[in-house]
Amino acid sequence: MTMDKENILYVVGTPIGNMGDLSPRAAETLRSVDFIAAEDTRVTVKLLNHFDIKKPMVSYFEHNKHDKGVKIIDRILAGESCAIVTDAGMPCISDPGEDLIRQCEEAGIRTVVVPGPSAAVSALAVSGLETGRFTFEGFLSVNKKSRSEHLESLLDERRTMIFYEAPHKLNNTLQDLYSTFGDRRLTIARELTKVHEEIIRTTTEAAATAYLDEPLKGEIVLILEGKKSEDKPKMTLEEAVACAQRLIDGGMRPTDAAKEAAAMSGMKKNEIYRKLV
Ligand code: SAM
Q1: Does 94 contact ligand 1 (Cβ within 6 A)?
Q2: Distance CA 100, CA 84 (A)
Q3: 273: closest CA among 259, 265, 264?
Q4: In this predicted model, what pLDDT tens digit does every residue of 118-168 receive, in sequence order?
Q5: Cβ neighbours of 215 (radius 10 Å)
Q6: Pick from 48, 51, 85, 264: most CB atoms within 10 A?
Q7: Residue of 21, 92, 198, 221 to test ligand 1 pocket, by largest number of atoms within 8 Å of CB
Q8: Cβ of 186 less than 6 Å from ligand 1
Q9: How many A from CA of 220 to the centre of ligand 1?
Q10: Strand partners, 190
Q11: Tens-digit pLDDT profile for residues 158-204
């Protein structure tokens, strides 16, 4: 393969587990560029060693991206070519790279994509849920308030939703999904392309308690069914408010009562809370 490779940033997808998923074009690109910008050079060196590729690397990650971005741009403008890679999957998708693309655009540098696997799309494909329209939600915030704002903003979402999640936060998230959305179909895609790959097609209700004793391990994508048009509220707003009031009378805090009543009724937590106060 020949390529005119000067003054170009290549955005190269790398395997999400199985080394066999590095495409011949990706390998050739990594071989032919002048240098590689890697999220973690210790991770990428393993990939390069596996394919017997020797190439200078610079690190480019969340906390050095501004300064490193400027240096990478300067090198490309001076005539070098660069490939950006992350630890796994597509750069720029819940991974570093987005800012570098913007800096390239500002500097008039050409970008070329060398597509590879992405956990989000791979999980969606095997989810068994509707794939015609979907939304990628990335990671939920660890901050409780922004996390529940994010989830509540999706209450009426009809498209299939994709979330990334870290294993140690999974049980919390499964419980939040159930209390926010009620019972829905959910697919848990675990360790894709690896030895312990597992596709669990379940529901939010079942999943909320299924892994409390034995938490799931490994890398996980959650695929949540969108709201169905025939989803009818299980209670009217007035009934939901009355239900929340009973929970408060029983000693629950108003915000928790509104949340609980929302999960039971299918009504919006904020609306119940507003009526309560
Ligand atoms: N840029 C990557 C991509 O395109 O797939 C995603 C990077 S993000 C920092 C890492 C998250 O992706 C993990 O927390 C997990 O949710 C998901 N992930 C990555 N590899 C995975 C795999 N082999 N199986 C399941 N999920 C995976």
Answers
A1: yes
A2: 9
A3: 259
A4: 999 999 999 999 999 999 999 999 999 999 999 999 999 999 999 999 999
A5: 10
A6: 85
A7: 221
A8: no
A9: 7
A10: 198, 220
A11: 999 999 999 999 999 999 999 999 999 999 999 999 999 999 999 99
Name the one residue in this structure whose structure tokens are 């956990």.
Answer: 119
Specify the residue for token string 């799931």: 216
Ligand 1 pocket mutation, candidates 12, 94, 98, criterion most atoms within 8 A of CB: 94
Other beta carbons within 10 angstroms of residue 118's beta carbon come to 22
Would the CB of 39 count as within 6 Å of ligand 1? Answer: no
Asked if residue 97 has its Cβ within 6 Å of ligand 1, the reply is no
> Which pLDDT value is given to residue 2?
41
Which atom of ligand 1 lies nearest, measured to the CA of 120?
5
Three-state SS string over the chain comes to CCCCCCCEEEEECECCCCHHHCCHHHHHHHHHCCEEEECCHHHHHHHHHHCCCCCCEEECCCCCHHHHHHHHHHHHHCCCCEEEECCCECCCCCCCCHHHHHHHHHHCCEEEEECCCCHHHHHHHHCCCCCCCEEEEEECCCCHHHHHHHHHCCCCCCCEEEEEECHHHHHHHHHHHHHHHCCCEEEEEECCCCCCCEEEEEEHHHHHHHCCCCCCCCCEEEEECCCCCCCCCCCCHHHHHHHHHHHHHCCCCHHHHHHHHHHHHCCCHHHHHHHHC
